[in-house]
Amino acid sequence: MRMKTRLIHGGIDGDEHTGAVSVPIYQVSTYKQEAVGKHKGYEYSRTGNPTRHALETYMAELEGGARGLAFGSGMAALSTILSLCQKGDHLVVGHDVYGGTYRVITRVFTRLGLEATYVDTTDLEAVKEAIQPNTKLMILESPTNPLLAVTDIAAVASIAKENKVLLVVDNTFMTPYWQNPLDLGADIVFHSATKYLGGHSDVVAGVAITKDAELGEELHFYQNAIGGILGPQDSWLLLRGAKTLGIRMEEHERNTARLAEWLSEQPSISKVNYPGLPSHPGHELMKKQARGFGGMISFDVGSASRADEVLAKVKYFTLAESLGAVESLISIPARMTHASIPAERRAQLGITDGLIRISVGIEDVEDLIEDLEQALR
Ligand SMILES: *Cc1c(COP(=O)(O)O)cnc(C)c1O
Predict the structure, then answer these.
(1) Architecture, CATH, for domain 3-242
(2) β 135-141/90-94 pair status
(3) Of 78, 169, 204, 313, which one has the fewest beta carbons inside 10 Å?
């Protein structure tokens, strides 16, 4: 089955009891048992719910894994993954991961006894050097936010395997439509499903998928024990949103490629970061490990005040955090998504005050270009 067909027919198709074409919303917390412990597979909805199960099965299939699990947010998915560790374990983490990932590790999990080393995962030697005898998990994003740095996932996976470390990839930016980290050797892939998977700025959710069933069972234990599950309504919204993931991703990318080209020609812009541009350092690697380049782009307008001017003048770009929805969103990473990262670290990473990030929507790209043109002028 090809990806676009899998998006429509993958997982659990409809409802066998009624013939309903879409999976029903099982708004239920508990299930009748005929005798103690004798039931139809469901006991209590924290442990399992048919609508969430349909979503989990579907997500596992899309990512090519054995087990999918759905959570109340991307951060709940990550926190449950981190619960696989115990006190004294060490993490190797990409140095420019999502701000919330950095925050939950540095402010919560290190307090509970985990250690973490932050590395540039595009540098394989640095990754090797960061591994310690007590390293349990490696966590990375590719491409990263907002500079779109690309890591060789298969190469990092083989380093992880050699050292008996589990590789966890945050695939939020690419989605399973463009990239499947489990096929490249990762052990767990997770998403903020709030972004492209949902796609309509109407649900906060997370999913995690494991390559093998045993690790999936272990993660399900923590999902049930901790309880950060996704409810049936939101599970259904995600099932609905993901049906159109293929056509949305194609359109996001077409618009972004056109915008990247246009921005590159503007004299007032010093740098355009988009892995689809042949000049981007990760371009060839992306062609090797992904089927597309995604819909995220960032560029430098020179200063914070100029960035503010652009933001004040655009009409079709909504000033907001988040990404991956049908509408174009614009933000200033240094003062929004990455504000929790100390200024010194931001400077090291290259997240300048004039850097603007756009999550390109699926509006008509000519309107988007005209709008940016008047705002830059
Ligand atoms: C938004 C985001 C997260 C966090 O997900 P939530 O659903 O907001 O909890 C994690 N990683 C990336 C790359 C994100 O963009």
Answers:
(1) 3-Layer(aba) Sandwich (3.40)
(2) parallel
(3) 313
CA distance 181 to 235: 23
> Which stretches of the chain are DSSP H helices?
3-9, 50-63, 74-82, 99-104, 124-130, 153-162, 175-178, 213-226, 232-242, 245-264, 283-289, 304-313, 343-349, 365-376
3-class DSSP assignment, residue 276: coil
Kindly list the protein residues whose Cβ atom lies closer than 6 A to any atom of ligand 1.
73-75, 98, 100-101, 141, 145, 170, 172, 192, 194-195, 204, 206
Which CATH topology does 246-376 take? Aspartate Aminotransferase, domain 1 (3.90.1150)
The residue whose CA has the least distance to atom 8 of ligand 1 is 74
CA distance 142 to 97: 9
| The CA-based dihedral angle spanning residues 362, 368, 369, 374, taken in that order and rounded to the nearest 10 degrees | -170
Where do the structural domains in the chain lie, given as residue ranges? 3-242, 246-376
Question: Can you tell me the distance from the alpha carbon of 161 to that of 217, in angstroms, rounded to the nearest whole number?
Answer: 20
Q: For atom 7 of ligand 1, which residue has the closest CA?
A: 74
**What pTM value is reported for the model?**
0.97
36-74 tens-digit pLDDT? 989 999 999 999 999 999 999 999 999 999 999 999 999
